[in-house]
Amino acid sequence: NDQVQPLRVVTSTVRDGKMETHCLGSQTMDFFDRIDETTGEVLEYATTNVNKNGHGRHGFFASLETSMLVPAATGPPQPLLRHKDASKNITTTCFDAFCYEPIPYRSAVKEGATHVLVLKSRPTGSPIGTTPGLFEKVFAPMYFDRNGMPQVSTYFQNGGQQYIYTEDYLTLEEGRKNRSTSSKDGGVHVPPSKILYGVERDDEANDLVANRDKWDKAHLFPLAVPEGRPELSALSVDTDEVCEAVRLGFASAF
C-alpha cells in the first residue's frame, strides 16, 4: 500500500543551520536499503542515525525515533545522515515533530494532498493554551541551548510553537466548516510548513506572511472525539484508560 498511500514520518530538524520540517519515507530511501536481489549486497544505504555512541538505529526505526524525541523528556536530539545527503555528508539534527508541526497536515498538503483527513488527539472544544508555560519559557530553551541550537531556543521563547498550534486549530475549524469538496473550490488556504513566527524571517518568509493567497489550498476534515468526553493524560499508562480512549476514538471514526 506504500505505493498508493506512502507512509511519511514527520520530524523537526536543524539542517545546515536552518530550522526545517522533514518528511521521511521509502520513496526518498529513508526506510530501507537498496539491495542486490542476486547477491544480497547492499547497493545503497537508507537513512542512518549516526549517534556518536555507535548504537544508532538504521532506516525505518531511525526515522520513527526522530519523530518522537520530546525535548527535555526523551533524551538529546538525534543526528540523521539521510540517504539524499550521504554524498555530501550533511547531518540533520532531529527531534519531535510537534516542535514545528504539531498536527502534520501541512507537509501532506505541501507534497500534493488535496483532501486531508486529520485525526485530532484531543476532544472537540479542548482549551488551547496561548500563555507560555514552564516548558516554553524554561525547559525547551534550556534543552536546545544545551544541545547547541539557540535558534530553536529563541523560537520557543518567542511563542512560535504555540502560535503554530493555535493556527492549526483555527485552520482545521475553517476546513470543517467548508463543506464543499469541489476540486474547483480548492478548499481552504493551508499555512506553509516553513516556520514564519517566532524566528527571524528571510525574504521567502516575509513574502508568505504578506501574501497568504499564495498558500496551497486543500479540503480539510478534522476528526475528534466529541466535546465533553474525558481527555486521556499524555503520560497515562493505565490499561483501562487507554482502552477507553481507543474505544471513543474508534466510535468517532466509524
Describe this structure in words.
This protein is of the alpha+beta class and 254 residues long. The protein is built from 7 helices and 10 strands. The strands form 3 sheets. A 5-stranded antiparallel sheet has the order 2-1-7-6-5, with helices on one face. β3 (34-35) and β4 form a beta hairpin. α3 runs antiparallel to α4 (150-157). The model has no long low-confidence stretch (mean pLDDT 90).
Regarding quaternary structure, how should these chains be classified? Answer: single chain
Number of helices: 7
- Poorly predicted runs are none
Q: What is the helical fraction, as a range of percent?
A: 25-40%
Terminal residue distance = 22 Å
Number of distinct beta strands:
10
Task: Describe the sheet with the most strands.
Answer: 5 strands, antiparallel
Which descriptor suits the 3D outline?
Answer: globular
- Numbering strands along the chain, what is their spatial order in the largest sheet? 2-1-7-6-5
Give a topology summary:
Layout: E1 8-15, E2 18-25, E3 34-35, E4 42-44, E5 48-49, H1 59-66, E6 78-81, E7 92-95, H2 106-110, E8 115-119, H3 134-146, H4 150-157, H5 160-177, E9 188-189, H6 203-210, E10 217-223, H7 239-253
Parallel strand pairs: 8-10
Antiparallel strand pairs: 1-2, 1-7, 3-4, 5-6, 6-7, 9-10
